[in-house]
Design brief:
The complex is a heterodimer of chains A (302) and B (235). Chain A has 302 residues and is mainly alpha-helical. Chain A is 72% helix and 4% strand. Chain A has a two-stranded antiparallel ribbon with strand order 1-4. In chain A, strands 2-3 form a two-stranded antiparallel ribbon. Chain B has one domain (27-51, 69-234): 3-Layer(aba) Sandwich (Rossmann fold), CATH 3.40.50. In chain B, the strands form 2 sheets. In chain B, strands 6-7-8-3-9-10 form a 6-stranded mixed beta sheet, with helices on both faces. Chain B is globular. The chains are: A mainly alpha (302), B alpha/beta (235). The A-B interface holds A 168, 171-172, 174-175, 178-179, 181-190, 295-296 and B 48, 50, 69-75, 80, 82, 86, 88-91, 95, 98-100, 102-103, 133, 147, 151.
Amino acid sequence: MELSEVAQNAIDAAARGGFFALIALGVAMLFGIMNLINFAYGELIMAGGYAMLVFTGWFFDATVWPLLIIWTIGVAVVFALAQERLAFRPVRNAAPTTMLVTSFAVSVLLVNITIAVWGGMPVPVPLAGVTLDQFVIGDVRIRKLDLITLGAAAFLLGTLTLFLKKTSSGIQMRAAAENFQMSQLLGVAANRVIATAFLIAGILAGSVGLIAVANRGGVSPGMGLFPLIFGLVAVVIGGMRSLVGAVVGGFVLGGLVVGLEQGLATYDLERFRDAFVFLAVILMLVFRPQGLIAGRAGRERV
Amino acid sequence: MLEISNLVVRYGSILALRGISLEVNEGEIVGVIGPNGAGKSTMLMTSAAAVTAAEGDVQFEGKSVLGERPEDIVGRGISLVPEGRHIFHTLNVGENLDLGATVRTNSKEVEKDKERVFELFPILKEYLATPAGKLSGGEQQMLAIGRALLARPRLLMLDEPSLGLAPIVIDRVFETLEQLRDSGMTILLVEQHAERTLELADRVYVLRTGNIEMAGTPAELAANPQFERAYLGFV
């Protein structure tokens, strides 16, 4: 492979890695604190996407992009907090299976509301060609969107890290994620910690929605499923009980996906890419179920 | 200060506590000893509102504790150091300690209390930036106690602080408890180590399979032939 191809693949892998890392982080955050895999998390991304659709309906395009970003993330956060308050808080102390079924129910509900309002077909979202812009350096073509994705991922990850390490709220969250009951015994308010986790998850989901729509050029009711699944895969690869693991898993997955796309292309097997990704996950679960970054020992997982 | 009356606690169909009553008065160290599975941890966890009672009451300073949320109990003046210490491994020592002060509002007072904790456990000051998971068992126990103290409790409850510790470390821990009592702290201590508890406590209850079988001062219990039988049964 030529150097320019390597460089392009590297950037592609990094951008996708950042994308997966953001999803994985949202998933891992909720899992760490509530011991729940929120299957309605993809629908937060979808909510962000459709928020963008609504926005461009008002403003015709995305030149007012700071407003678009605030609006999209705001909508995702509202939906996230609503999920917490209306769906998950009432069943917080119920059996793990109850919470799991609840998250499925929320997911189905949100998808079907979307279909009822906008129909089941994909709808394009005009974004003034952000997706098409490219820089050219020598032989290497770099998509502007990939740089934006990387920049956004770095910014969000950096801010989140600062929050978790330097603020008392963040330290309380880390404690609650490690040992919820012990943190309660020290006075950490359960409701506030969980709501904050959903807030952060909402911010991440909104950001992911922005990037996803910019990449796809449109929205569809099922658009949250793929990111959710790959986010779960990233969390499994990286380590289920570690936020750092989620990020690492995201980037590993990004590299894996790009590597597979390149490798399989030589054998004309690209359409089996996802199959190979999941095969890798199965192997990981068999040989190193705690993931690459071992977190602390967990409670029973759903 | 703490009054447990006819407390019944069930885990599903299993009776963990069959109606126990005990009390802890201000300024004492009360020890509760008994074998594994006696219900000692259950008693402490119920007093910290982390476990629901089926019948009976636990009152702290005249007001019931049952039905509260665990995070509100600390604000009322009770700190629990649970069995196994449960320090946060991924946080460093400093962060663990800071979490102890979650309910505190006056940061100057918290700093003063931190200095007192460092006087008790100088080694914690050295390890402030170290991930708590890297500390030895004894050091973790000190961290757990120090952390509990930073909530400025009026009642300190400890669940088997000697578990998994070398004898010389246990000495240190029990010394610390004595120092705390001497400076006015009320302590409820649950232990399997009958001997040391008898040396330290002002009064002792013996808990066995969910029932209080005996109670009294260490001297009274030592003079009781029944106690010797029970004591030999689980030391």
